[in-house]
Amino acid sequence: MLALLRRFAPRRRVYMTGLLEHYAPVARSLAVVEEAFGRYVRKSADRGYQMLAGRIDALEGEADRIKRRVRNHLPPAGLMVVDKTLFLSYTRHQDNILDAAQEALTWLGMGDPDVPPDVLDLFTEYLARVKKTVRRLKPALVDTIALVLDGTLDRTAVKRRHHEVRQRHLKAERVRRDLLASLFATTGDFRDVYRLLRVLECLEHMSHEAEACADTLRAMIAR
User: Fold this and answer.
1) Radius of gyration in angstroms for the set of CA atoms belonging to the chain, rounded to a whole number
2) Residues 129, 133, 135, 139: is their CA dihedral positive or negative?
3) pTM, full prediction
4) pLDDT in tens, 47-89
């Protein structure tokens, strides 16, 4: 048993910090969506969606490689510092953020909008809120890993990090409800409204999955 523990001891840091490696391309996908939406609003002559789609596809490929490497080198469940089911659940939720970003980009590339400027302004605000929600996930993840591996942080302080993600998600939800009402109230072409509704759905999914990540992190440190 002692020999087995020694064999897998180095892995305890690799697979936990692998979650942080996986977060990097996930977070960068938001910048791609933000750029795409900016081009969408400006109705740029050369919106470059093919280039942006290539960038987000590359990020997905990077994230998948990291995820496979981490999952393929997990120690036996009994030797993991967190519950294996929770660990795999976290990687799935975090991966879903990038998948939703990729889907949002697909819908943004389907045509120019013809909706009132105030609706687009509200959409811009919602996108910013979603971005903040996903960004708050990083410090929550960093502190959770530090607590799990080293026990150097205060558990209550780490829980506050998780709560910050949920609070950002709730703030984003309030903007989403206003945006949804505005979209249904507009007299714009149905195709334009439908496209933005699908983008809205993707952004909501990104924010919701970030909150799910925070809930999973909270479960990882539960006594």
Assistant:
1) 20
2) positive
3) 0.90
4) 678 889 899 999 999 999 999 999 888 888 778 889 999 999 9
Q: How many CB atoms lie under 10 A from the CB of residue 96?
A: 18
Provide the token pair at 81: 């510092």
Per-residue tokens: 161: 């990090």
Secondary structure of the chain: what % helix, strand, coil (to 5)? 85, 0, 15
CA 219 vs CA 19, 21, 29, 98, 223: distances in Å: 15, 21, 26, 22, 9
Look at residues 92, 72, 76 and name the one whose alpha carbon lies nearest to residue 84: 76
- Give dist(CA 223, CA 219) in Å, integer: 9
**Nearest C-alpha neighbor of 44 from the set 121, 125, 107, 112:** 112
**Cα(111)–Cα(215) distance, integer angstroms:** 37
pLDDT at 42: 77
Sign of CA dihedral 57, 62, 63, 67: positive
The parts of the chain modelled with pLDDT lower than 50 are 1-10
The CATH number of 2-220 is which of 1.25.40.10, 1.10.940.10, 1.20.58.220, 3.40.800.20?
Answer: 1.20.58.220
Give CA–CA dist 84/89, Å, rounded. 8
